[in-house]
Amino acid sequence: MHNRINIMSDEPNHQPESDALKRAEENVRQLVLELAAVNDELDSFSYAVSHDLRAPLRAVDGFAKILVEDHAAQLDDEGRRLLSVIQREALRTDQLISGLLIFSRLGRQKMVLEPIDMHALAQSVFDGLAARSPERKLHLDLRPLPPAVGDLAMIRQVWWNLIDNAIKFTQGRDLGEIEIGTQTGEGGELIYYIKDNGEGFDMRLAGKIFTIFQRFHSEGQFPGVAGLGLGLALVRRIVHRHGGRIWAESEVDHGATFFFTLPHPLS
Length: 267
Prior knowledge:
Elements: H1 15-71, H2 77-106, E1 113-116, H3 118-131, E2 138-142, E3 148-151, H4 152-168, E4 176-184, E5 190-196, H5 231-241, E6 246-250, E7 256-260
Parallel strand pairs: 2-4
Antiparallel strand pairs: 1-3, 4-5, 5-7, 6-7
């Protein structure tokens, strides 16, 4: 009788693990493609809806103007008041549509990365915004800002919206104080920040402030695009497209500080 000897290979069989890894990678690729398709569809839908809404809105505004110009004398005070409400709401809706179009285009806009003088850019944006409110007393403490790499137009929009917010939300102060600088995060990460002495907000709302159309103050308090809940949503989308992060810290009636990172190194 012969003994049977089973000779086993010392090499483990990795075939099942290899197949599973390939299937997982293929699933991930498929999910990424599907997500990209959904994002494209959402962007196209937002653009189409926003564009098509403008036609009836212009008609409403146009007929309201005709009533004001040609038939105001036939209306009583309440009728004229209601017409002004129609015109005001038509303007506000047009601003919302404009913001939605900007938000939609941002997802499709090609980025052109280049070195950016962040110090000069922040100063230029502040000067332009301050000139719009000559009656305000504003003080800018601009610390040295290292250069960054990014899309210049987009990063200008980031500074514009963040500085615009700081100016708006310090309206109740005799002196609006704005500080812009940098910090070093964990692992040497460069963090840009903008701090103000304005109204601030409840940190329980911190997770919502970057959501489109979120507003935490009345329209009369802080009018404009930021008051429509678009400014910070645009900032977040731009920063995320650059691969960065953005967050905020605040206390009610004690101002707010916004932080963001731009991870592309300056070569």
